[in-house]
Design goal:
Elements (H helix, E strand, L loop, with lengths): L2 E5 L7 H7 L5 E5 L5 H7 L4 E4 L12 E2 L1 H6 L4 E5 L2 E5 L2 H11 L8 E5 L3 H12 L4 E6 L12 E5 L3 H4 L4 E4 L24 E4 L8 H8 L3 E3 L2 H15 L8 H18 L1 E5 L6 H12 L2 E4 H9 L3 H8 L1 H15 L5 E4 L8 H10 E7 L16 H18 L2 E4 L6 H8 L3
Parallel strand pairs: 1-2, 1-3, 4-6, 7-8, 7-10, 8-9, 10-11, 11-12, 13-15, 13-16, 14-15, 16-17
Antiparallel strand pairs: 3-5, 5-6
Helix pairs in contact: 4-5, 4-8, 8-9, 10-16, 11-13, 12-13
């Protein structure tokens, strides 16, 4: 291999796509069993490498390290030179790019870092570089945490008085990462002075922690910009380019972030029962090359009963509980078109599940044109009107796009949605 990423399990890595966006078509993935790492590194049959878990520390024994690697204690980039292998850490540069683009400044601020692994150390280094006023590392086992950064205190989650005035929260733990969507390492209610939240997780795009931040109106960022930026800096090292990105370089990074976001975003269709979500969704999925999921069909598959029949038999509340389980699982996926049940937006947890990876499209259709067959909650004109009055403000408040579904030509709505992708 010339260039690539090594690790033990690489699974769904975005690295190849990112480096291809930067023009490196020879970049590839290489899974290496632990027992083969020594022979691989000694052979050094490569020009440049990125390194991920569990080898970020292990490869240090084979390389000349710069000051950053020595301080952080991990390597993510290796360049082969005539006189040996040289190790670097571009993660901290990616971290600073990520926070800078989100308008988050650490200077003079009190910050708390959640976690005690390699990414936590990267964050501590970056925050010290940015002259944070005070840095606290929050750990469930503070007595076992050894950071090696003077001036950074390690405390327990139980010591709430120590961090109640924190202004910036940085999550470096995997809590809330796919497939454990919905979990959060902390409640932001414990941080009443918080101004900004950083989460290095990038799947889902909005973790439960970031959804809290969004709800409270705080500045926030997910970890995808860090992933893209650290790759750009690695490319600069591979090819001995200027490590200070110019406007064109920043444009390339932003375009790459946008490409990745679109490739993993779901399109969630919401709207009244019978507005055409299934028809529009299935056609849209075909045109975009996405998978299509109808939550009512998924409910039928799991419970062997149509939604309307389940409501008639067990009541609406019992249905909503089961429906929420379906929505939670479906919305964990990425790169799919999802047609949701008309009332699924009534529960906050469903709205959050849709929003974590989703672009939400409200399909609007005149009430007299709505299909009512098999829909017990909208069987009469009066019932339908009541439903619409309750649900319309929710649809509108959560929608990223509002699209009119016209009579006789639902595919016009498909074309309108396509313009945004």
């Amino acid at each position: 291999m010339e260039y690539g990423l090594i690790g033990e399990k690489l699974g769904h890595s975005f690295s190849v796509k990112i480096h291809q966006c930067f023009g490196n078509d020879s970049y590839c993935l290489r899974e290496i069993p632990r027992e083969e790492l020594d022979s691989f590194m000694k052979a050094a049959d490569f020009e440049g490498l990125n390194v991920t878990i569990p080898y970020k520390q292990a490869v240090m024994d084979y390389c000349h390290m710069d000051e950053v690697c020595s301080r952080i204690g991990s390597v993510n980039t290796i360049v082969k030179e005539d006189d040996g292998l040289y190790a670097y850490n571009t993660d901290y540069l990616g971290f600073l790019y990520m926070t800078g683009r989100a308008g988050i400044s650490f200077k003079g601020k009190k910050a708390v870092i959640l976690g005690n692994g390699g990414t936590a150390k990267t964050a501590v280094y970056a925050l010290q570089k940015e002259e944070a006023g005070e840095i606290i590392l929050l750990s469930r086992r503070p007595e076992e945490t050894r950071l090696g950064f003077p001036g950074c205190r390690v405390i327990s989650y139980q010591d709430k008085d120590e961090f109640k005035d924190v202004e910036i929260i940085v999550n470096t733990t995997p809590v809330g990462m796919y497939p454990n969507n919905g979990a959060s390492p902390v409640s932001l209610n414990d941080f009443p002075k918080a101004e900004s939240v950083v989460d290095v997780v990038y799947n889902p795009m909005r973790t439960a922690l970031l959804l809290q931040a969004e709800e409270k109106g705080l500045k926030y960022t997910d970890g995808l910009p860090m992933l893209v930026a650290q790759a750009w800096y690695a490319e600069a090292l591979f090819f001995h380019k200027n490590m200070e990105p110019d406007d064109n370089d920043i444009s390339d990074m932003e375009k790459t972030i946008e490409i990745l976001r679109k490739s993993v975003s779901n399109i969630c269709l919401v709207g009244m029962p019978g507005c055409g979500k299934s028809t529009v969704g299935s056609e849209l999925a075909k045109r975009l090359g996405f998978a299509f999921i109808d939550t009512d069909e998924e409910f039928l598959r799991i419970h062997e009963m149509k939604a309307g029949d389940y409501i008639t038999t067990y009541g609406e509340e019992a249905f909503r509980i089961k429906e929420a389980e379906v929505v939670a699982e479906v919305c964990k996926k990425t790169g799919v078109v999802i047609a949701t049940g008309g009332g699924s937006i009534l529960r906050k947890e469903n709205r959050q599940a849709m929003h974590q990876n989703g672009i939400i499209v409200f399909l609007q259709r005149d009430m007299e044109l709505l299909e009512r067959s098999g829909r017990p909650l909208s069987a009469s004109d009066e019932a339908l009107k009541r439903l619409y009055e309750v649900r319309k403000p929710i649809y509108e408040s959560m929608a990223d796009l509002r699209i009119k579904v016209s009579e006789g030509n639902p595919y016009r709505a498909v074309e309108e949605i396509q313009r945004f992708f």
